From TrEMBL:
<dbReference type="Pfam" id="PF01642">
    <property type="entry name" value="MM_CoA_mutase"/>
</dbReference>
<dbReference type="InterPro" id="IPR006098">
    <property type="entry name" value="MMCoA_mutase_a_cat"/>
</dbReference>
<dbReference type="GO" id="GO:0031419">
    <property type="term" value="F:cobalamin binding"/>
</dbReference>
<dbReference type="InterPro" id="IPR016176">
    <property type="entry name" value="Cbl-dep_enz_cat"/>
</dbReference>
<keyword id="KW-0413">Isomerase</keyword>
<feature type="region of interest" description="Disordered">
    <location>
        <begin position="41"/>
        <end position="60"/>
    </location>
</feature>
<dbReference type="GO" id="GO:0019678">
    <property type="term" value="P:propionate metabolic process, methylmalonyl pathway"/>
</dbReference>
<dbReference type="GO" id="GO:0004494">
    <property type="term" value="F:methylmalonyl-CoA mutase activity"/>
</dbReference>
<dbReference type="InterPro" id="IPR006099">
    <property type="entry name" value="MeMalonylCoA_mutase_a/b_cat"/>
</dbReference>
<feature type="domain" description="Methylmalonyl-CoA mutase alpha/beta chain catalytic">
    <location>
        <begin position="87"/>
        <end position="386"/>
    </location>
</feature>
<protein>
    <submittedName>
        <fullName>Methylmalonyl-CoA mutase, mitochondrial</fullName>
    </submittedName>
</protein>
<feature type="compositionally biased region" description="Basic and acidic residues">
    <location>
        <begin position="44"/>
        <end position="55"/>
    </location>
</feature>
<dbReference type="GO" id="GO:0005739">
    <property type="term" value="C:mitochondrion"/>
</dbReference>
Length: 394
């Protein structure tokens, strides 16, 4: 509960900073505010009377001059009661934000601790984000063809989707895998398969993200060997391995080993990559799947950061210095349709992570304190918008 309160407090702060720039808060129509799950409903109730809205947010009243003008337009109705809306997280968003809402907050710059505004001084204006299509289907030959077509079309990195048998560590010939081979991703059973998957794709120049958790050891080993047979050493490889087993136990279920043994594997991967793969992200700590399972943005942030802290403890327990592996921890967020809440989530996450790494784990390197992330648009928000067209038909 303490971590949830902290996350919610940071959300209030980030929302105020985000919304006052536009002076008016978002209208009800600018974001999806339906109670989409029992999780979000219980979160709202946790903060008190769900239906009530007040004229104050964090103790800051609405501008009295604006209130009087708004009352006239609303034919005498209280603008605080009429226009304040409550998010699924249980946060009241005022209809008006001004510089008064942020006057007591210290000045922050992008590229400077605690990195609320981002890890780089110029952010994406000078360093655009990498665009990569999450893809993989049928055979390694078909997927390789698709990857090369995307690269020719301008894609800057690869994101490999593996099929369910590969995730669960089954060979495609295993009877258990029947019906699932190549269905929700590409089937990779051997080093030869991995070599074909990246045929004519220079792995010393192409960043590769691999969504793999349960069978992370064989898949990562096959990737490294396939690169070596291209003449590319591990220290030249760039990209990410998801390797987030805690969220598998929580919401996704493609784990193989019990939690303790799974975490030992992650510690071993941290140890290997920190020594041999300095440009490769050893984990992608994932909030996306937690959001897809029904969590609102506050819960997504809280659970994801909590997982991140446990991974830090795992690295330390493996005898690795925090500054040796923390710079290559990465995060993965789901991005829904509530624009302002998603911005607030990422700003709060950066700030919270920087403080935790410095104060809790004694990190010295600025790279250990910066939260770098990958994001994908969510699926649940689309379902919520078009819930009535999901029907069975002949």
């Amino acid at each position: 509960m303490a971590s949830l309160r902290l996350c919610k407090s940071l959300f209030h702060r980030s929302l105020a900073q985000t919304l006052h720039r536009g002076h008016l808060g978002p209208s009800r129509g600018s974001a999806c505010t339906l109670q989409r799950s029992c999780v979000s409903t219980s979160t709202a109730r946790r903060d008190g009377d769900e239906g009530k809205a007040t004229s104050e947010q964090r103790g800051l009243p609405l501008d009295p001059e604006w209130v009087e003008m708004a009352k006239k337009q609303l034919k005498g109705a209280d603008p605080a009661k009429r226009l304040t809306w409550r998010t699924p997280e249980g946060i009241n968003v005022k209809p008006l934000y001004t510089t008064d809402d942020t006057k007591d907050m210290e000045k922050e710059l992008p590229g400077k601790y605690p990195y609320t505004r981002g890890p780089y001084p110029t952010m994406y204006t000078q360093r655009p984000w990498t665009i990569r299509q999450y893809a993989g289907y049928s055979t390694v030959e078909e997927s390789n063809k698709f990857y090369k077509e995307n690269i020719r079309a301008g894609q800057q990195g690869l994101s490999v989707a593996f099929d369910l048998p590969t995730h669960r560590g089954y060979d495609s010939s295993n009877p258990v895998a029947e019906g699932d081979v190549g269905m929700a991703g590409v089937a990779v059973d051997s080093v030869e398969d991995m070599k074909i998957l990246f045929s004519d794709i220079p792995l010393d120049k192409m960043s590769v993200s691999m969504t793999m958790n349960g069978a992370v050891l064989p898949v990562m080993a096959m990737f490294i060997v396939a690169a070596e047979e291209q003449g590319v050493s591990p220290d030249q490889l760039t990209g990410t391995i998801q390797n987030d087993i805690l969220k598998e136990f929580m919401v996704r279920n493609t784990y193989i080993y019990p939690p303790e043994f799974s975490m030992n594997i992650i510690g071993d991967i941290f140890s290997y990559t920190s020594q041999n793969m300095p440009h490769f992200n050893s984990i992608s700590i994932s909030g996306y799947h937690i959001q897809e399972a029904g969590a609102d943005t506050v819960l997504e942030l809280a659970f994801t950061v909590a997982d991140g802290l446990e991974y830090c403890r795992t690295g330390l327990a493996a005898g690795i210095d925090i500054d040796a592996f923390a710079p290559r921890l990465s995060f993965f967020w789901g991005i829904g349709m509530n624009f302002y809440m998603e911005i607030a989530k990422m700003r709060a996450a950066r700030r919270l992570w920087a403080h935790l790494m410095k104060d809790k784990f004694g990190a010295k390197s600025p790279k250990s304190m910066t939260l770098r992330c990958h994001s994908q648009t969510s699926g649940w928000s689309l379902t919520e918008q078009v819930q009535y067209i999901h029907y069975a038909s002949d």
